[in-house]
Structures are given as structure tokens and as C-alpha cells.
Specification:
36% of the residues are buried. Helix 9 links the parallel strand 8 and strand 9. With 314 residues, the protein is of the alpha/beta class. The strands form two sheets. A six-stranded parallel beta sheet has the order 3-2-1-4-5-6, with helices on both faces. The protein has a three-stranded mixed beta sheet with strand order 7-8-9. The N terminus is likely disordered. 52% of the residues lie in helices and 12% in strands. The radius of gyration is 24 Å and the shape is elongated. The two termini are 38 Å apart. The protein has two domains: 169 residues, Rossmann fold (3-Layer(aba) Sandwich), CATH 3.40.50.720; 121 residues, N-(1-d-carboxylethyl)-l-norvaline Dehydrogenase, domain 2 (Orthogonal Bundle), CATH 1.10.1040. The chain binds NADP nicotinamide-adenine-dinucleotide phosphate. NADP nicotinamide-adenine-dinucleotide phosphate binds next to helix 5. It comes from Pseudomyxococcus hansupus.
């Protein structure tokens, strides 16, 4: 297979545990991720717009490049961990960008949270240059990156994902491979962040309602920790929605509507706007209106899927 400088590399090349890696983007996430790759014994050349942030890695033996292209030059794999689409676009496609520096056959591992459209563009651009591309965004905050507790979701051609598997495994506690279409990993990452954001809005609304009703946040936190946190509740509902198992009902959707109305009644009394609760109440109301009141309340999954034009069981 073709490697850096267009040379053909024997298979054993990829079996070497020590790889030559470029790493572009040393922000809150990139810095600890790059440090873990270094600690795993790989050779690193790093680039960051603000060069001073590379100092801790330089002290541990990484080379510091003047441009993204220089970080990518001669590397078997080059990671990018940058803020957003604009940053990734300029660092990859710029005159002194990653793509210009990558050799044919070299691999770009894109870990930033970016749009599906940009990920598609990256897949096409690298393929047409004879380069390889894997999307590997991550779940977990900087502290998790430091302690190798990230969860990586990766997608791309099978052999390329397998080639960078040891690198991805060096970043976290686990890896889910989502098939050969790289942008699928970006869809999963964005869905995950939507899940977190919705959960935070629900938490924020619950804390506001209880607090304004005279309950100490610590007391509600105690209930939350005893009943919801680290509990199988999320897991149960995710499974019911994934399997579209809405009948027989464990808890009827029409009773869910009643409870959301009770929540909103309490919120009205306490003068606490709860937009997410209002939205969920209307979702349940729509479900009852469509004749689904006796399905399990997790049939919210079916209502949303139907409005997205999805057929049951597909
Ligand atoms: P950050 O601390 O703000 O770092 C952003 C990085 O992008 C820095 O290296 C910054 O360079 C660089 N950058 C920004 N604009 C640029 C530009 N126009 N040209 C070149 N470089 C540019 O962000 P982060 O928290 O590490 O996040 C990085 C990515 O991971 C984001 O896509 C984020 O959504 C995702 N993510 C974050 C978390 C988290 O908890 N923080 C978790 C999972 C995923 P400078 O140092 O020069 O500013």
C-alpha cells in the first residue's frame, strides 16, 4: 500500500506499534489527546494556530510544525481536533493545509465536531487525492480526554478504521465503529450532543420548578441521584425506542400527557416557564389525538419517527 512520499509500504509497516503522527489543533481537547498518543509511544509532529500551546508536548518530545501541511508531511496518520467547520476547512484545504502535506495513502483522522456536509466533502477530497479519511469524533470533556476516558465513534473504510484502531484506542475507554461511510460518525456525534443538550434543558427546567417551589436544590439533587442518575432508566427507554416496542404499555402515553399537564400546572403556579415540558406535553397530546394514547409513553419515538417520514421497522 502507498505510504508517505508515495512509497509502497509493506503490510508490516502498519503493524508497527510506533507510528508517525501529525496532530493539528491543541485546544482543551486536542492537547490531552495528543499527549496520550505521545504517551502510547507514537512519534508526534503537532501544529496549533497559537504555537505557545504546543510547549507541554514539545517538552515531552513532540516536534512543533510551522504549518498544518508540515505536521502532515511524512505522517502515516494526521489528526485534526479544531473548533468548527471554518477552522477545519482552512486547516485542511488551505495552501499550507493538511491535505497539501499528506502523502498518498496517508490517513486523516478528523475528531472535531463538524457538520455532516464538511465530513462528506473531506471524504471526497481525500479520496480523489488518493488519501484516506476516517471520521472519529469523541464523547467526553477535557478531564475525560486527560484520563483516557473518551468514547470514540468512528466510521470510514474498514481497513482504514482498522489501521487507526490502536490510535483511537489510545485516546479513550472505548470505540464504536459505525460502518464504512465516514459522515455517519458525525451524525452520531451530533445526535449524542443533542441528547445531552435536551437532558440539560430538562434538568434546568426541573431544578427551576423545584427551587421556585421552595425545595432545596440539594434535596432535589439527592432524589435525582437516587432515582435517575446511574440508573437503567435512560437505557430502558433507548432500548424501547430502538426496538419500537411500544406495546403492551408499561406506562400509557395518555397518562404521560396527564403528568406533563400536571407539571405545567405546577409551573404555571410557580411562574416557571418550561419550554421543553410544553413541547413534550404537545407531543403527547398529538399522540393521543392520533389514537395512540394506550401505547407506552416511549411511543414518543414513533411520533417523531413518523413525522420524519420513517416507516415502522426500517
Ligand atoms: P478549544 O479549546 O476552543 O480549541 C479549539 C482549537 O481550534 C484550538 O486549537 C484553536 O487554536 C483552534 N482553532 C479555532 N479556530 C481556528 C482557526 N480559524 N484556524 C485554526 N485553528 C483554529 O475547543 P475544544 O474544546 O478543544 O474542542 C475542539 C473540538 O472538539 C470542537 O469541535 C468541539 O466541539 C469538540 N469537542 C469538545 C468537547 C469538550 O468538552 N470541550 C468534547 C467533545 C468534542 P488556538 O489555540 O490558536 O485558539
Amino acid at each position: 500500500m502507498a505510504g508517505p512520499n508515495g512509497a509502497d509500504y509493506p503490510d508490516r509497516f502498519w503493524e508497527e506499534t510506533r507510528m508517525k503522527i501529525g496532530f493539528v489543533g491543541l485546544g482543551n481537547m486536542g492537547l490531552p489527546m495528543a499527549a496520550n498518543l505521545l504517551a502510547a509511544g507514537h512519534t508526534l509532529t503537532v501544529w496549533n494556530r497559537t504555537e505557545a500551546k504546543a510547549a507541554p508536548l514539545k517538552a515531552k518530545g513532540a516536534k512543533v510544525a510551522a504549518t498544518p501541511a508540515e505536521a502532515a508531511r511524512g505522517a502515516e496518520a494526521v489528526f485534526s481536533m479544531l473548533a468548527d467547520d471554518a477552522a477545519v476547512g482552512s486547516a485542511v484545504f488551505g495552501k499550507e493545509g493538511i491535505q497539501a502535506g499528506m502523502s498518498p495513502g496517508a490517513l486523516h483522522v478528523s475528531s472535531s465536531t463538524i457538520s455532516v456536509a464538511l465530513s462528506e466533502k473531506l471524504a471526497e477530497a481525500h479520496a480523489s487525492a488518493g488519501q484516506r479519511y476516517v471520521a472519529a469524533p469523541v464523547f467526553g470533556r477535557p478531564a475525560a480526554a486527560e484520563s483516557k476516558q473518551l468514547w470514540v465513534v468512528a466510521a470510514g473504510p474498514k481497513q482504514d478504521v482498522e489501521r487507526c484502531r490502536p490510535l483511537l484506542e489510545a485516546l479513550g475507554r472505548g470505540l464504536t465503529v459505525l460502518g464504512e461511510n465516514a459522515p455517519a460518525a458525525n451524525v452520531v456525534k451530533l445526535s449524542g450532543n443533542f441528547l445531552i443538550a435536551s437532558m440539560m434543558e430538562a434538568l434546568a427546567e426541573s431544578f427551576a420548578l423545584t427551587r421556585k417551589s421552595g425545595i432545596e436544590p440539594k434535596a432535589f439533587l439527592d432524589v435525582f441521584q437516587s432515582v435517575f442518575a446511574r440508573s437503567p432508566i435512560f437505557e430502558t427507554y433507548a432500548q424501547l425506542i430502538a426496538e419500537e416496542k411500544y406495546s403492551p404499555a408499561g406506562f400509557k402515553l395518555k397518562l404521560g400527557l396527564k403528568d406533563m399537564e400536571l407539571v405545567l400546572g405546577a409551573a404555571r403556579g410557580a411562574e416557571v416557564p418550561m419550554p421543553l415540558a410544553s413541547l413534550v406535553k404537545d407531543q403527547f397530546l398529538g399522540g393521543v389525538a392520533q389514537g395512540h394514547g394506550d401505547l407506552d409513553w416511549s411511543a414518543l419515538g414513533a411520533l417523531v419517527a413518523e413525522r420524519a417520514g420513517l416507516k415502522r421497522g426500517t
